[in-house]
Write a structure and sequence with these properties.
Blueprint: E1 2-4, H1 6-27, H2 53-68, H3 75-85, H4 91-101, H5 128-133, H6 138-153, H7 157-171, H8 178-187, H9 194-207, H10 212-222, H11 231-245, H12 249-257, H13 263-278, H14 285-291, H15 311-325, H16 328-334, E2 341-343, H17 361-367, E3 373-377, E4 381-387, E5 398-407, E6 417-423, E7 428-432, E8 436-438, E9 445-453, E10 460-469, E11 476-483
Parallel strand pairs: 1-2
Antiparallel strand pairs: 3-4, 4-5, 5-9, 6-8, 6-10, 7-9, 10-11
């Protein structure tokens, strides 16, 4: 059991957003510069933080959580909020929105025609909202970070980076040691992914006493295959700043920013993480005064409703949701291995050990999925749809794949029989390996299919799989979008 006082959490959450605002404002003027920099302080106007999508996007996610409740949040809901509330169409942001407008669901919205940007920085920079809603509940924080990141990064390195950062930020509410936090973050992502490799380059350089500039160049060398503005290298710059800064807020942030590249993102993430770890005590008073409390927006469709306008309001919004996310019966219902966390009259995390937050179970749950795949959630089962190749079909062509029923065994344990049927465009038909599945046949049940386009092919085509469970009133309708 971990107990937090509301006052403790409020201070750490507020320090997270102040630190985020400081780093984003300090680094923004140098964003995209590929060389080693010599930044020593602010160049922006005093008292006015610069607008930053790192913070903006999280205001939209907070709105979604407030509208639907935290348990309902998944990539489909966040995808709809992308389309309704977020303006930019650059890089992965534009790719995912274009895909979703064609009916492509996440995570495929982050995969199709996104090879250049699915490894980029748009997701790991917006993880603080999940960590603050689930302090010291790492499994829940990384689940939501995945649902978020997969919309515009699919199963790419950008998604692994988001899981890595979210794990560290959630654990930082009770772990005040950088090396322990790095170990926790690394334990949540595949050992052979590029993010993990680049992070280890930064750690190894620091342990060998290599000068920070040479360490930075080693990271750049390690990322030559991906190039600039990609997640592995920039996350490694954050790690470099944290290690070489040795607990000093200004030094840590300046080391990361002076590595160049996505400087607003690296500075903002260091500020947020160190704010969570140490509260307002670690935030330099002169930098805090320079920034102020306000939030400047750049990405939001503001005409559709109110958003927090300063860090105080943002903190208040999250504090209002904590009685839900930290409710005991809610936590037990989630069936996670997280420690139980509650609000109380005194802080108590004396029995916490960093190893309790480590483990790769979550990422292993989807690591084997095919690149072009997605899940539709149902009341008694989820349906995983996987294509064998990019879901494009030509007239008189075929497209193969499989559906897997992921049964909610812990909620509805009785035996079940499912019937599968496909609704297709005129002239199309689906050849399925079988049309009924029984639970006792070895769940989770997987059925292969082949779509035949014997009729006219539109630019965007929709097949609908209907899954009916005998004795249950609600069918699961699975949209299968196929591009022409």
């Amino acid at each position: 059991m971990i107990t937090f006082t509301p006052e403790f959490l409020r201070e750490r959450i507020y320090a997270c957003w102040i630190g985020k605002n400081i780093g984003g404002t300090l680094g923004a003027p140098y964003e995209g510069k590929p060389q080693i920099l010599d930044v020593t302080g602010f160049t922006s106007k005093p008292g006015e933080p610069l607008p930053n999508d790192d913070l903006d996007l999280q205001l939209v996610w907070l709105r979604a959580v407030n509208d639907y409740g935290p348990d309902a949040i998944n990539s489909k809901i966040l995808g709809e909020y992308w389309l309704s509330w977020i303006n930019p169409n650059w890089n992965e942001y534009g790719v995912c929105k274009a895909n979703m407008r064609d009916g492509i669901l996440p995570p495929m919205s982050g995969e199709i025609d996104n090879e250049q940007w699915k490894h980029s920085n748009g997701a790991w920079i917006r993880t603080e909202v999940w960590a603050c809603l689930y302090p010291a509940m790492v499994e829940n924080a990384i689940r939501l970070a995945f649902e978020d990141a997969s919309v515009d990064h699919g199963y790419g390195e950008g998604t692994y980076a988001a899981i890595f950062v979210a794990a560290m930020e959630s654990a930082a509410f009770v772990i005040n040691d950088i090396r322990s936090l790095l170990n926790i973050g690394l334990s949540k992502i595949p050992e052979d992914c590029h993010v993990a490799r680049s992070v280890r380059v930064a750690i190894d350089a620091y342990d060998k006493g290599i000068d920070w500039k040479d360490a930075r160049n080693l990271i750049v060398k390690d990322n030559e295959d991906l190039g600039w503005f990609q997640a592995p290298g920039n996350v490694a710059f954050v790690v470099l700043g944290l290690l070489y800064g040795e607990g000093d807020f200004k030094k840590s942030m300046l080391y990361a920013i002076n590595c160049g590249d996505d400087t607003d993102c690296t500075g903002a993430t260091i500020g947020a993480l160190m704010g969570i770890m140490g509260g307002m005590a670690v935030i330099p008073e002169d930098w805090r005064a320079y920034i102020g409390d306000g939030i400047k927006s750049i990405c939001l469709t503001n005409g559709h409703g109110p958003f927090p306008t300063d860090c105080t309001q943002l903190t208040d919004c999250i504090m209002n949701l904590l009685p839900t996310t930290l409710r005991k019966d809610h936590q037990k219902m989630l069936l996670k291995k997280d420690a139980l966390v509650e609000l109380g009259d005194a802080n108590d995390f004396s029995n916490v050990d960093a190893n309790m937050f480590c483990g790769r179970k979550f990422v292993e749950s989807f690591a084997g999925r095919k690149q072009y795949s997605y899940v539709i959630e149902g009341p008694y089962a989820d349906v995983l749809v996987e294509f064998d190749e990019k879901p494009i079909i030509t007239e008189n062509g075929t497209l193969s794949g499989a559906v897997t029923l992921l049964l909610h065994q812990q909620l509805m344990p009785e035996q079940k029989r499912f019937r599968l049927s496909y609704l297709t465009p005129e002239g199309w038909w689906v050849d399925s390996a079988k049309n009924t599945i029984s639970r006792h046949e070895g769940f989770n049940g997987k059925v292969e299919f082949t779509i035949h386009a014997d009729g006219y092919v539109e630019p965007v085509n929709r097949v609908v799989l209907e899954v009916v469970c005998a004795g249950r009133a609600t069918p699961i309708l699975v949209p299968i979008t196929v591009l022409g």
